[in-house]
Amino acid sequence: MKTINKLSVTLALAAALAPRLNAAVMEELAAKVNNEPVMMSEYNKAKDKLTEQYRASMPDFFKQKDAREQIEKAAMDRLVDEALLRQKAEALKIKVYDRELDNGVAEIKKNFTRDENNAPLSGPAADAAFSAELRKEDLTMEQFRDRIKKQLMVRKLIEENIRAKTALPKEEEIKSYFDKIKAAVGGDKAVFAGLDEEAAQDLTAVAQRFREFTAERVRIRHILFKYDENAPLTEKSAMLKKAEGVKKELETGADFEDAAVKYSDDKESAQKGGDLGYVIKGMLPKELDDKAFALPLGEISKPVPTQFGYHLLRVDERRIAQKLKYETVKDDLEQLLTQSNFGRELASYLKDLRKDAKIENFISVGK
């Protein structure tokens, strides 16, 4: 059973401390941390963000009966931890220089240099989009800069008091971890003996990443002619006829990428000429999976039916399965173990901060 991993939450906390715009304060309190209010608006936003993250990275997590309760608890824990770190940074009077603050504001403003279609905006248009967001969040520029300053103080706190103390993994630790991952990738269940649930989940997740890294893969493009799975036969027949017509165009010289932009009902991949990137065996619906791994390079498939519609496929690249080698993944494992050590240091630091903190929770969380 997958549960919210404490390490993943603490690591996510560090990422969450990157500058961002905060919603306008609502009246209802969710909690207090040393008399600092945590508003329901903040709690709901944190909960929604965690839900999105887990839907994207661990969709099976939501099959658990207590998934909602775990999300609620993790969201509240994150807000409490953020408040404690912010308060500690202020107590230590960590200095943020004007140049650093200006750079922090500029970092945020970069997010407003493109429109919703990812097209670049002119300088004045970008400034107008940024100002509109400030008004939406009910923030003045002075208030916004103050919040960025506090978040930069926390960054410095983490770098100077936590990350600086994080131990780097030794060679034998990296090699031992590699051996465990290699065994897990090979299906050896014995490697999980003696591990607690959290450690077993971490090893499983990392092993899966490396299994995908070394697996046979193909890079494919597709053009989708969409229909509803329960559509009448006449509609499906019309889509088949359309797909066959586009295939004839491609066989007589039409460009696949241009055709994807023009015809594909998968608008996201259509913007990239139908490119779906690399896929490994078992990643796609079976009908597509079988065809993609059997199709010769550069050849265009006949229309392939799935529950989503008819697909025209083209395989652009093929990579054979690779052997998992220590030297190839050593740097990645070193970084992974360093992050794991950092997560433990951060969790320990937060635990100490909580010992002396007055935390009042006004809502039912994780029950």
Your description of this structure?
This protein has 367 residues and is an alpha+beta fold. The chain folds into two domains: 6-167 and 338-361, Porin chaperone SurA, peptide-binding domain (Triger factor/SurA peptide-binding fold); 217-319, Chitinase A, domain 3 (Roll). It has 13 helices and seven strands. Strand 5 (304-306) and strand 6 (309-319) form a beta hairpin. The longest helix has 30 residues, at 326-355. The radius of gyration is 25 Å and the shape is globular.
Main attributes of the structure:
2 domains; 11% strand; 3-stranded antiparallel β-sheet; alpha+beta; 7 strands; Triger factor/SurA peptide-binding fold; 367 residues; disordered N terminus; globular; 4-stranded antiparallel β-sheet; Chitinase A, domain 3
Biggest sheet layout: 4 strands, antiparallel
The CATH topology label of the largest domain is Triger factor/SurA peptide-binding fold
Give the neighbour order of strands across the main sheet.
Answer: 4-3-6-5
CATH architectural group of the largest domain: Orthogonal Bundle
| Rg calc | 25 Å
Percent of residues in beta strands? 5-15%
Q: Which spans have pLDDT < 50 for at least 5 consecutive residues?
A: 1-26
Structural class: alpha+beta
**Beta-strand segment tally:** 7
Average pLDDT, to the nearest integer?
89
The CATH superfamily name of the largest domain is Porin chaperone SurA, peptide-binding domain
Sequence of secondary-structure elements: HEEHHHHHHHEHHHEHEEHE
How would you classify the quaternary structure? Answer: single chain
How would you describe the shape? globular
Helix content: 55-70%
Tally the structural domains: 2
**CATH class (first level) name of the largest domain:** Mainly Alpha
